Amino acid sequence: MITTFGTPQPLHALCLAPHPDDAEIGAGGTLAQLARLGRPVGILELSRGEQGTLGTPEIRALECVRAGEILGLSWRGQLGLPDGDLGDTPEAAHALAAVLRLVRPQLLFVPHYADRHPDHVGSYQLAKRALHLAALAKAEVPGSSHRAARVLLYQGNAPIQPNVLVDIEQDLITWEAAIRAHASQFSGRAVSETVTPEVIERRKARLMYWGTFAGRRFCEAFESESPLLLAPQSL
Ligand SMILES: [Zn+2]
């Protein structure tokens, strides 16, 4: 793992990104909001996106730094796993568990298991294993054991059934600016069914769709696999 932005430190929230722009697209509004509220927030890319049709790993690394500045991240790291081959392997799980022990997130954002991209599904499976390993006191992983208090799955390129919505209207401009920082990926070229000239408009439409269910203009949608414990005053 290499640090690409900021300093490794105990984080309130960490977002795992299979490829360099996934965190911004799926959870960027919530990450920006947490950072704006003064919480230390980080992103860990699992791969350098070297199999992507557009851009190069070097260009994408620079774009990640710019997006990190825009989001107000405290830390950003790169795990350097093979793009196109992300999944639950012992080596990858140990490497990710070591990062979890290093930056000790209370809240972890993970790609949703329902996705058309095998790397996103593989990242979910890898995260499950790494979370377990990081919490096991006797696991042969550097650092002391750590268990994230909450895990939220963020939407990729498939429908999900969310049970957590976050109003991101105040951070919508930051969300879009952070995505556009990945300029090589959003050049206006049609690359696939999901990356088309209107890709950001489609994503914004999705935020509006989820907002419908909370009476808000723009919401990011997440799934928690365990029940949420809410304080009575927040009901
Ligand atoms: Zn991706």
Automatic annotation (TrEMBL):
Molecular-function GO terms, alphabetical: hydrolase activity, acting on carbon-nitrogen (but not peptide) bonds, in linear amides
SUPFAM superfamilies noted in UniProt: LmbE-like
Pfam families linked to this entry: PIG-L
InterPro entries membership: GlcNAc_PI_deacetylase-related (IPR003737), LmbE-like_dom_sf (IPR024078)
Coiled-coil positions: none
PANTHER family linked: N-ACETYL-ALPHA-D-GLUCOSAMINYL L-MALATE DEACETYLASE 1, N-ACETYLGLUCOSAMINYL-PHOSPHATIDYLINOSITOL DE-N-ACETYLASE-RELATED
Name recorded for this polypeptide: Putative LmbE-like protein
UniProt source species: Deinococcus peraridilitoris (strain DSM 19664 / LMG 22246 / CIP 109416 / KR-200)
